[in-house]
Amino acid sequence: MINRRRRLRASTAIRDLVRETILTPKDFILPIFVVEGENIKEEISSMPGNYHYSVDRLYEIIDEIEKAGIRGIILFGLPDTKDEVGTSAWTDDGIVQRGVRKIKELNKELLVITDICMCQFTSHGHCGIMDGCVIDNDATLHYLEKIALSHAKAGADMVAPSDMMDGRVGAIRNILDENNFKNVSIMSYSAKYSSAFYGPFREAAHSAPQSGDRKTYQMDPANIREAMCEIEDDIKEGADIVMVKPAISYLDVIRWARDRFDVPIAAYSVSGEFAMVKAAAEKGLINEKNIAMEMLTSIKRAGAHIIITYYAIDACRWLKED
Ligand code: PBG
User: Fold this and answer.
1) Alpha helices of 46-91 — where are they, by DSSP H?
2) In Gene Ontology terms, what is one molecular function of this protein (predicted)?
3) pLDDT tens digit string along 152-179?
4) pLDDT at 133
5) What pLDDT score does 212 carry?
6) How far apart are CA 290 and CA 196, in angstroms?
7) Per the confidence metrics, is the pTM higher than 0.90?
8) For 21-321, CATH number?
9) Measured between alpha carbons, how far is 109 from 104 in angstroms, rounded to an integer?
């Protein structure tokens, strides 16, 4: 007797019936970049189809998000001024804080997540406070607390520390609790690798380190057991959601995390993953829709059901077409 697996592949209807992994618009979170200034909507050259928005034009992207059926965004801010300690990251009228307030004004229901990091705001472009040429872990925590608190005050529903300092989740949880923001949740970039896939983002966010690299704080791409330790630490410190980043080259990490931990797992399909597909599609080498949807499906199949992706709006449109 032959096992005729092909019987369940014979038509669209039967394939749909037996499909194990189903993407929905509810899975996606869209990154948004907000800049100082007025009347700005400028395409980001390294990430076609993504824009820098000034606060007064955020309504355009929020409108698109609502129409697509996306429920959450993660906000990145580009300040006008940078200094050694990233002061513009925690001021009340900082670019992220004003962006959050505007988005909440436009749509109260939309889940607003903010990236907690210093690299866009420091003159040296590192994710922490420098002591000579090293990043001072414990000195940085104090600044991360200030940033998280200011985002919560502005109305963020969730903060997402991406700096990779040790102890930051606990420090942020404490400061939020002490200030009566017990209901602001933490999505930690727990397994964040020192990856070349962030290149286009650093151009978009003006956040490349001026000297050196991020290898003393972000993880070595070769390590997976260490990622489990990072995730375990973050959960113990109070992370509500843990993230693996990047996604496509780290599907094994997502799977290990899914099998070992019971908190929700997010994956960030980063700028380089997006830009590679875009570039190949523009050259006519691949079918953009099919490749992008296959990649997103594989991320969910690996075990992440929260997917941060620059393809969020397109993916929602493509899902409707099918
Ligand atoms: C900030 C931050 C980065 C990304 C998200 N938050 C860049 C970095 O760590 O250098 C990357 C996102 C992307 O590539 O899409 N630390």
Assistant:
1) 58-68
2) porphobilinogen synthase activity
3) 999 999 999 999 999 999 999 999 999 9
4) 87
5) 87
6) 24
7) yes
8) 3.20.20.70
9) 8
Helix residue ranges per DSSP H, 19-79: 58-68
Residue 157: predicted pLDDT: 98
Is any ligand 1 atom within 6 A of the Cβ of residue 258?
Answer: no
- Token output for 145: 């607390």
Residue spans of the chain under pLDDT 70: none
Q: What is the pLDDT of residue 322?
A: 78
Residue 73, beta-bridge partner list: 30, 112
pLDDT on residue 205: 87
Q: How is 188-203 classified by DSSP, letter by letter?
A: EEEEEB--GGGHHHHH
> How far is it, in rounded angstroms, from Cα 21 to Cα 293?
12
Where are the domains positioned within the chain?
21-321
Task: Please state whether 303 falls in left (phi above 0), alpha (psi between -120 and 50) or beta.
Answer: left
From the list 47, 52, 105, the residue with the least C-alpha distance to 80 is: 52
Q: Is the CB of 115 under 6 A from ligand 1?
A: yes
